[in-house]
Amino acid sequence: MKQSRITNTLLPWHELLHKTCRELGWSPHTFWQATPKELEMALNPPGHQNTHSLSRSTLNDLLRQFPDEQEPHHHDG
After folding, report:
1. In this model, does residue 18 exceed pLDDT 50?
2. Nearest Cα to 31, choosing from 52, 11, 48, 46?
3. Cβ pair 66, 47 in contact under 8 A
4. Of 3, 20, 2, whose CA–CA distance to 12 is shortest?
5. pLDDT (0 to 100) of residue 71
6. Which domain of life, per UniProt (predicted)?
7. Rounded distance, CA 62 to CA 46, Å?
8. What's the pLDDT score for residue 77?
9. Is the distance from CB of 39 to CB of 16 less than 8 angstroms?
10. Residue ranges of the alpha helices (H) in 13-72?
11. CA-to-CA distance for 75 and 62, rounded, in angstroms?
12. Hey, how many other C-beta atoms are within 10 angstroms of the C-beta on 9?
């Protein structure tokens, strides 16, 4: 029976697990309990510029396109 290798192109799980266990001293359990945001924060040095961050103009465009819905005001009385 031929073994197949499953690969995930979205996140390099094997590399992330290796890096956190070897370089940060995490246990596999700690790794699998971490959120993607926690992984990002642990693996990037303080002050690291996230190239995937939104610019202010992009954020403003999104806020205009998708405004928060206003809830109706209820008056007691």
Report:
1. yes
2. 11
3. no
4. 20
5. 66
6. Bacteria
7. 28
8. 55
9. yes
10. 13-23, 28-33, 36-43, 56-65
11. 32
12. 5
Residues in the chain: 77
User: In which residue are the tokens 């790794």 written?
Assistant: 31
Separation of CA 21 from chain center: 19
**Cβ neighbours around 43 below 10 Å, total:** 13
Residue 19 CB coordination number (10 Å): 16
Does pLDDT of 28 surpass 80? yes
Answer left, alpha or beta for residue 13, where phi above 0 means left and psi between -120 and 50 means alpha: alpha
Mean predicted lDDT score pLDDT of the chain: 78
- Which tokens go with 52? 């995937």
Q: For tokens 């945001």, what's the residue?
A: 37
Q: Which residue's entry shows tokens 């109706």?
A: 72
